[in-house]
Fold LmbU and cloE-like protein.
Amino acid sequence: MPKGNGHQHLAATDRNPIEPIHNNRLSLNGPGLTRRTALALPVGMPIAEWSRLGRQIFIISDSSAWWLGDWLIYGQAQYPDRYKRAVAETSLDYQTLRNYAWVARQFSVPRRRDKLSFQHHAEVASLPEAEQESWLNKAERFKWSRNELRRRIKAGRTVGQSAVEVTHIQMSVIAPQKELWQEAAKTHEQDLLTWIISILDNAARSTLDVKDGYPQLNGGSAPGPVREIAQADSKH
């Protein structure tokens, strides 16, 4: 696997131990009978047992997003010329898998929180690592739902952007140039606008030798108002 993505080292850690798929947390243990299209439960099951099964099902469902993301990352690294065909043969939705893989890439295994869902991580995936950690710490500490975390982040951005002047920029490019950029963006698991902004942002900082003193743009993603304007422009 490529260096730096955290997927080549799957050793257990104190925060996030790696456990085999057959362990109790990731399998349904109890009176339920599972089939591909059904879960049969016995009459008279105690509510505590029913509740426990529900928690197990959620853990399996949530874990599958991480598994599929890591699975696609492995395929991209090991079978660069064949993995897309293999994905197609599984009948899995490629765009959904790409989204899973993009989130998985943003969090090395030790940084993934067992007490938070995959969707919690997805909400902060576009932010700089320090902000990711800050928001996940808060979500874990205060037991925020995914929706509550999203609301808090949105509120924080609104406050942070209230004093930021938004500039309207238009750009015209020829079709071959756009296609070239789109292919480059795909290699980074990003949409075109996010990729353009991240490249320009990094180039500007490199040229000016600007580091922590300059406002961060969500780790390469445009803030809400800027992104919305850029998306509107791209439709014309």
In short: Residues 201 and 207 are 10 Å apart (CA to CA). Residues 1-25, 210-236 have pLDDT under 50 and may be disordered.
